[in-house]
Amino acid sequence: MSILVVGTVAFDAIETPFGKTDQVVGGSALHFSRSASYFHKPVYLVSVVGDDFPKGVIDDLGRRGVDTTGLQVKAGQKSFFWSGKYRTDLNSRDTLDTQLNVLEHFEPYLPPALRKPDYLMLGNLVPALQKQVLDQLAHKPRLVVMDTMNLWLDIARADVLTNLKLVDLVVLNDEEARQLSGEYSLVKAAQAIRRMGPDRVVIKKGEHGALLFHKDDIFFAPALPLEEVFDPTGAGDCFAGGFVGYLASSRDVSFENMKSALIYGSAMASFCVEQFGSERLLSLTGKDIRSRVKQFLELIQIDIELG
Ligand code: AMP
């Protein structure tokens, strides 16, 4: 089994009602691989950074079982930079600044050894670049999962639609699902998105959990009611990392197993929101993850005798 992720590796500046940081490392591929590596190693990461990106962070990924052979480091260039500010409810955020920098001329290149992944995560990235990765594959992976964001739906919708025809599962938040489909009801939105290509759709609803859609089947995983949510940045990518990582470790992409994967993804997202970026994921143990999953199971367990 192998997992390949393509996405951003970045510097973020984040402001939440609880704190502010001018610089924390982030990016969709970084958050995803930190999360997925708890379930399956290696995670192959394809992305680009400038030579301003801390080598210590890349070395740390290596120690976690993330293979960074496909991470291009461009001399004399600056890494991708994103800055965002959360509103008081933490479910909505405004992008304050996006500086593509090294991403502007990025051409994702899959070394021959990375062209046959079993699981491919197209993390949030310029849709045309996600497509370039799909074009380099030597065979069809067991599962291709794609993420995107409102920015790309605004400025590159046609490219997003092209990619949707080529992937098995798309992960979106509720706002993005509504924007993509033009439907307010998330059930109708998921049906409309499935008609655009992917067989399965996951819609994340922040503190209100996540929904998995496949044909007429729907499964719902709640989010853990946490006492303190500090910073939601990266939660979606950590969710995807837990989801795909669990599927790869259990070698089973059935709808039934995806229900479990949804819980593991939600557990990883619940850790992510406890600190800036995905910093909380640097110090987890297998025991932490198991006891968090147990909390989820207790949350949804109910015995009802139907008379
Ligand atoms: P999430 O909170 O899961 O949506 O992911 C947040 C991460 O997405 C941050 O660490 C950013 O660096 C990254 N990001 C923000 N804007 C973009 C963009 N336009 N393309 C790719 N990644 C982005």
Explain what you see:
The chain is of the alpha/beta class. Helix content is 36%, strand content 26%. The protein contains ten helices and 13 strands. It has a nine-stranded mixed beta sheet with strand order 5-4-1-8-9-10-11-12-13, sandwiched between helices. A hairpin with a 6-residue loop joins β6 (80-86) and β7 (93-99). The longest helix is centred in the last third of the chain and has 18 residues, at 255-272. The model has no long low-confidence stretch (mean pLDDT 96). Adenosine monophosphate (AMP) binds next to β2 and α8. Residues 8, 10, 12, 26-28, 82, 98, 124-125, 149, 151, 233-237 line the site of adenosine monophosphate.
Summarize this structure briefly.
With 307 residues, the chain is α/β, with parallel strands linked by helices. It has 10 helices and 13 strands.
Features:
307 residues; alpha/beta; 9-stranded mixed β-sheet; 4-stranded mixed β-sheet; 36% helix; 26% strand; globular; binds adenosine monophosphate
Could you tell me the radius of gyration in angstroms?
18 Å
SSE order, as H and E? Answer: EEEHEHEEEEHEHHEHHEEEHHH
Which percent range describes the beta-strand content?
Answer: 25-35%
Most strands sheet? 9 strands, mixed
Structural class: alpha/beta
SSE layout:
Layout: E1 3-6, E2 10-16, E3 19-26, H1 28-36, E4 43-50, H2 55-63, E5 66-74, E6 80-86, E7 93-99, E8 119-122, H3 127-136, E9 143-147, H4 150-155, H5 157-164, E10 169-173, H6 174-181, H7 186-195, E11 200-204, E12 210-214, E13 217-221, H8 235-250, H9 255-272, H10 286-300
Parallel strand pairs: 1-4, 1-8, 2-6, 4-5, 8-9, 9-10, 10-11
Antiparallel strand pairs: 2-3, 6-7, 11-12, 12-13
The structure holds adenosine monophosphate.
Adenosine monophosphate is lined by residues 8, 10, 12, 26-28, 82, 98, 124-125, 149, 151, 233-237.
